[in-house]
Write a structure and sequence with these properties.
By secondary structure, this protein is mainly β. Helices cover about 0% and strands about 50% of the residues.
């Protein structure tokens, strides 16, 4: 793999970004922002498009449907479907933080801090729900439509068409009970293009509180649950794998965020566990996405000289917020 090259100057939104995604046609990039706004830019010229305002809390995640509609979720549990820049529908999907959205051809799945997994129709009507009594961080549909969800304790549940658990893949290294605090969790799930391998990512925690952790990525045989290979960061300041994406040819792109500002952008060529490319130029990366053409990547990080808590006192006494520069990369 040739190292990717940064293209142009980064896009700098006026606030921090939690998630970025390209549209299916590759013509726009959307960002879930902590001020409750979904911001979008045209690709490749990065011109701002209409801002989408329909959330009361942080926009925590977003995902495009195959027809180009955008689904966005927030920290109050609201799920919004946008069509042609208008709200198609908006529902109270969860009680509190909605952590992940996955889309199949005829279904939408969500999970959250309330411990529920829910499936919805394309029109926002609830199909099924299941309560697992634990903070749920991630979910993904397999290429053939099976839903998988990951939780705080490193458990990966495979669910049937009515959200009943078929089997469980235990990955206990993703969790730590430190004093009275549970930390860690399976933060990302993704499938290989052929559906035979499922990737789980997050961290192997060392301590709670300030959360010292090694970023962790594990490849599992989906049929047997056996570990095929794994990668763990070199030290416990490198933090958490916050986002993981898969190329059409099976390569992986991941980003991490750590203490203090040791986040990385990584590319993998499975089944090799050692990263084929690592960039440490961007502190605390939180999201990554691959353009549909497979030749571009976007990463979102945290601005340089961040205080780490989102606020730095300026010369005039103001406390400007951190931002999340979004960098394009060209890749072969």
């Amino acid at each position: 793999m040739k190292p990717p090259k940064e293209r142009g100057k980064p896009i700098v939104p006026p606030c921090q970004v939690i998630r970025i995604r390209f549209s299916p046609d590759g013509k726009e990039l959307a960002a879930a922002c902590v001020d409750g706004v979904v911001r979008r830019w045209s690709v490749p010229d990065a011109k701002p498009l209409t801002e989408l305002k329909g959330h009361d809390g942080w926009v925590t995640t977003l995902s495009y449907s195959p027809n180009g509609d955008l689904l966005s979720a927030d920290s109050w549990g609201k799920l919004v479907r946008w069509s042609n820049e208008k709200v198609r529908w908006s529902i109270a999907a969860h009680d509190g933080w909605l952590r992940a959205v996955a889309i199949a051809k005829d279904r939408i799945a969500t999970c959250g801090r309330d411990g529920y997994v829910r499936e919805w129709t394309a029109d926002g009507k609830k199909l099924h729900e299941a309560q697992f009594g634990v903070d749920l961080y991630s979910l993904v549909y397999s290429p053939d439509g099976v839903l998988i969800v990951g939780d705080l304790f490193g458990q990966i549940r495979v669910l049937d068409s009515h959200l009943k658990m078929l089997r469980k893949l235990e990955q206990k290294e993703f969790h730590l009970l430190d004093r009275i605090q549970d930390v860690g969790g399976v933060r990302c799930l993704a499938f290989s293009p052929d559906g035979k391998t499922i990737y789980a990512a997050g961290c192997q925690p060392k301590t709670g509180g300030f959360v010292q952790a090694f970023p962790l990525l594990v490849a599992l045989d989906f049929a047997t649950g056996k570990t095929l290979w794994s990668w763990k960061g070199a030290n416990d300041n490198e933090g958490i794998v916050h986002d993981l994406r898969v190329f059409a040819d099976g390569r992986l792109a991941a980003v991490t965020s750590g203490q203090p500002g040791q986040g990385k952008f990584l590319l993998f060529e499975p089944p090799t566990a050692t990263p084929a490319f690592v960039s440490t130029k961007m502190p605390n990366c939180h999201s990554v996405d691959i353009h549909p053409d497979g030749k571009q990547i976007a990463t979102s990080a945290t601005n340089a000289n961040s205080s780490g808590n989102g606020r730095v006192k300026g010369k005039a006494g103001e406390y400007p917020e951190n931002s999340s520069p979004i960098q394009y990369w060209d890749i072969e």
